[in-house]
Amino acid sequence: MSIEYTPMRLDGKRILVTGAASGIGRATAILASQLGAQLILCDRNQDGLCAVASECPGSQSLVLDLTDVAALKARVAECVTEFGKLDGLAHIAGRPYISPLKTVDRDRFDDVLHLNSYAGLNLAQLFSSRRIGNDGGSIVFVSSVYANVGSAANVGYAMSKGAVQSMTKALAVELSGKKVRVNCVAPGFVQTEMSEAISAYFDSAHEGEVDKLAPLGTGKPEDVANMVCFLLSDAARWITGAIMAVDGGFTAQ
Amino acid sequence: MSEIREWALVTGASSGIGRSVAIELSQRYNLVLNGRNAARLEETKAACCLDAEVCLYPFDLSNVDALSNDFTVFMRDKGLRVASFVHCAGVSRLLPVRSTKLGDIRDTFSTNVFAPFLIVQTLASRRINGDALKSVVFISSNISNRGSKAFAAYGASKSGLDGLMRCLAVELAPNVRVNSVLPGAVRTRMTESIFANEEVVARMKSQYPLGLGQACNIADAVSFLLSDKASWITGQQITVDGGATINITG
Q1: In a domain, A69, yes or no
Q2: ipTM score
Q3: Cβ contacts (< 8 Å) between A141 and chain B: which residues?
């Protein structure tokens, strides 16, 4: 056992994590809590959120549909008034949208954009307000390698995650005056509830192929959570506007 | 739980980012420190954590013809197994294309590209290093993906280094992870000539949303990439530059 690495401390930092009930959001919440953060956990899945909250001592839970902008603003503001101003925001909630171009449906695509892109923008807007977020804070968005590489029947998801990367860079410059850092993690194929739902679309003949996509195979939620927490921590204090691929080497090929 | 200190090799450890990386890593690794100047390597060693075993390897990496042989002999003599390698040594000669000589290009590429190629080759050799090598980080530059006046040789070498990084990442997976850190302007011995010019410093400051950086900012990213917290990250350029490359507002 080599000596453990622990410089990315989050002691005393108040951080809002969306999508905290499962997958990468859940792993991030648990790791951030272990690193000393006080958390507001946000998800629409109440049962999942309760389970995660029990592993994050002192956390507050916010059962919320992030696509409901009015509710989002009111509830987060209310929660922060009680909890204290935020030092970090990790917007991890997201949903896939597998559909060939021919069947892309405006309403369903809107739902995906509302959660994957607009919710991040609304949260950043809240975070940048003096009532909600502290100067010198850190925002981390989760995009996807599919914002950078093409794949069939994935146009809606790819567009929603591409927007996240553009938003990251624009906001990094705009919010630098407040010393708020804005970065983005672009995961490859990670074993989560969401990716299992996607795998259901794959032909059974292709089972096991996913593991061969990346030189280091399929990832775990904790692999991505490590990078999210690094970017939230002071170890990343000179990093802003960066897109960090955590993909087992998928995009290096 | 017994804690075993693995060995890490840091090139360019006599000053700047290399020294800062060495000091940071000495908290949990034993170190092989490479640099041209033995006296300055001793200064770095003196600043390292006392728990770390530190071994000096003074060698001029631009001497690429002798490097593989010399480094192999060093590894054999010390009986070392190196788990992590950080290439911080860099040559930067800022010259307009018209006044760049072949020797300038050769020296730049020797230290910045050929040397890390040969060192990884040696460390990936089972005969010399067993299967000890786990993680490699190259210090590239945020110029790697961009263009700038007087940066032709340096910029090309850093793009070459990142190309090498990606190919090594794919070829050596899953046993070895290989990544680059792309720093922005950090004041070191190497960049002293740039920082000596107040006009240039003022211009850079206006382009860096989070201000100019310090060597420890880079060392923190290196430390993260080497650790098992980054065990699914390979083949990536990690930019640490205070937002300079994404800022076009100046």
Answers
A1: yes
A2: 0.86
A3: none
